[in-house]
Amino acid sequence: MKEIFNFTDVEEMYQRCILASIAHAVMVGKYDMLTGEQWWDETNYNFQNFEGIRGVISFSEKDLACVLQNEMIASGEDDMVLLEGADNTTISFVQNEALPYMMSENENSAEIRITALFWSKGKKFYANVEEEQLMKKTDNILLPFLYSFEDAKKYWTDYYEMTDPQSRLVEEIYEKRILSKGKIKLGREIKNQLGKWFEDISNCLESFLEMNIDIEN
């Protein structure tokens, strides 16, 4: 069992997931083909790059677990081998929350195939592979969730080719979401602004609802 990502913690990684999700929720109005790139199912954050790599970060009250799959790597890894050294609470959490999202369908059956995983305990992250190897096997898909806030904001601004007003809106909504753990409601002016930018904002509204963000009609 090896300590990894010692420059960040659970709260920071959660915040980067929220930032990514809000950028996606705003800009999916422009890029509707990216609808399935990111999505939340309660406290499980799913993401993929449409090039065969996907992952889920499952959050509990204090900790998280992340499971990753690279379809370009033919053989999967045994989750119990990758979880060696984890306590029973972590093992149960990974198996019940994160692993089901890695179900792959084939001709005759369904199976769970994973390439890498890591988990947190306290302020530390652990894995049973070296940090460099984990990142390489999953083509650095985790990078936006490991950046500093400013670097992550720049990454998503560039990725979605946001205008300055769009980037400011993302940061405004992000700050409101981070400050509240429960449901939040945004004013009608947000919906009006999205409607000025994009012809169809239904995917935007749906993505916001996944994060417990409602927007007035």
Overview of the molecule:
- With about 220 residues, this protein is an alpha+beta fold.
- The chain has one domain (about 1-215).
- It is about 40% helix and about 20% strand.
- The chain has eight helices and eleven strands.
- The chain has helices spanning about 10-25, 80, 90-100, 130-135, 150-160, 165-180, 190-195, 200-210; strands spanning about 1-5, 40, 45-50, 55-60, 65-70, 105, 110, 115-120, 125, 185, 215.
- Strands 1-9-8-5-4-3-2 form a seven-stranded antiparallel β-sheet, sandwiched between helices.
- Strand 6 and strand 7 form a beta hairpin.
- Helix 1 (about 10-25) crosses helix 6.
- The chain is globular, with a radius of gyration of 18 Å.
- The mean pLDDT is about 95.
State the distance separating the first and last CA atoms: 50 Å
What is the H/E order? EHEEEEHHEEEEHHHEHHE
Q: Which percent range describes the beta-strand content?
A: 15-25%
General shape: globular
- The counted number of beta strands is 11
Mean pLDDT: 94
* Number of structural domains: 1
* Low-pLDDT ranges: none
Cα Rg:
18 Å
The largest pleated sheet is described as: 7 strands, antiparallel
Summing up helix and strand content along with how strands pair, one would put the structural category as alpha+beta
Placed side by side, the strands forming the largest sheet appear as 1-9-8-5-4-3-2
How much helicity do the residues have?
25-40%
Helix tally equals 8
